[in-house]
Design a protein that fits this description.
Elements lengths: L6 E3 L2 E3 L3 E3 L22 E6 L12 E4 L2 E4 L8 H7 L1 H6 L5 E5 L4 H11 L6 E7 L16 H10 L7 E4 L7 H10 L4 E4 L3 E3 L2 E2 L4 E2 L6 E4 L4 H14 L5 E4 L5 H10 L3 E4 L2 H4 L3 H15 L16
Parallel strand pairs: 3-16, 4-7, 7-8, 8-9, 9-10, 10-15, 15-16
Antiparallel strand pairs: 1-2, 5-6, 6-14, 11-14, 12-13
The structure holds ligand RRO.
Ligand RRO binds next to loops.
Length: about 300
Amino acid sequence: MSTDLTVRLGSLTLPNPVMNASGTAGHGTELGAYLDLSALGAFVVKSLSAEPWPGNPAPRVHETPAGMINSVGLQGPGVAAWLRDDLPALRRAGVRRVVVSIWGRSVADYAAAARLLADAPEEVVAVEVNLSCPNLDGGRHLFAHDPALAAEVIEAVAVAGRPRWAKLSPNTDRLVEVAGAVAAAGAEAVTLVNTLLGMSIDVERRAPRLGGGGGGLSGPAMHPVAVRAVYDCHAAHPALPIIGVGGVGTATDAIELLLAGAAAVQVGTATFADPRAPLRVLEGMARWCSERHLRTISELTGAAHGR
Ligand code: RRO
C-alpha cells in the first residue's frame, strides 16, 4: 500500500512534505541539473530583499564537525530582478509551487519586498518571512528575538496576498512565545529553525575563518536543536503548522521532526554533499511509511507527544 504523502500547511496543500531549505539551493534552477525540482513539495528561494544586495566578503562557508558554518550575508538580486530572471526558468523547469523567502532591515523593507510579490504569478504559493538570519549586521538584528517586532513584520507583509510563513530563530529562549505572536499576527505556519549563531577561528591566522566574522551553524550538529524547537512549539501551539528544518540528511531525521510536531520538512546542508538529498529523503520517507502501512504521512505529525 502506498501512503498518501499530501500535507496541509494552513490554506496550502502540498503533494508531499519535503522542500529544500531556503539559501541552500540558490535563487533559481541552480540544482536543476541534479534533481527534478518539480518533484519537491515546494521549491524555496534564497531570501530576497526589495533591492539587490551583494552579501558578505568571502569566505562564506566553512565545514565544521558534523556541519557547516556560513556567512553568506543575504546576497540576492532583489525581488524585481528575481521575478524577471529566475522565476521564468523555474516555471520552465516545471516548478508549480514556489515559496519566496524575504528579508529586510526594517518593517518597511519587509513590506516593500512583499509589495513587489503582490502581482507575482500563481506559482508563488507562499512567502517565507525570514525573521532570523544570523548574518544581518553581525547577528545584532534578529527580528525573531522580539515577539512584538516579529508580529509587526508579519502584519506588514500581508500585502503580498499569499500565505505567510515565519522562519524563526533557535538563538532565543523566547521561540515559543514568538511563534504564538506571529501566528496571532496572521502567519499560517512557522519554519523552525534557522541556523545557530556560531564562529570558527583559524588558529594560524588568529582570525575568524569567515569573511563576515561569525556565522550560522547548520547540518547534523544542530538536528537535535531543531527537534526540540519543533517539539516545544507543537506542545504550546498544537494547531499551528510547523515546517521542521535543521540537519535533515536522512528519511529518519525527517520522520523525527514529523513526530516532534512538524507537518513538513526542509533539507538544506545535506544538499552540499549530495544535491539529490531532498528527493532521497522524500523517497526514503515514502518507503518508511509504506513499510509501516500508514494511510497518510500526516498522521505522524506530533505522534511523539504524550508518550
Ligand atoms: O545569507 C545568509 O547568510 C543566511 C541567511 Br539569509 C539565513 O537566514 N541563515 C543563514 O544561516 N545564512
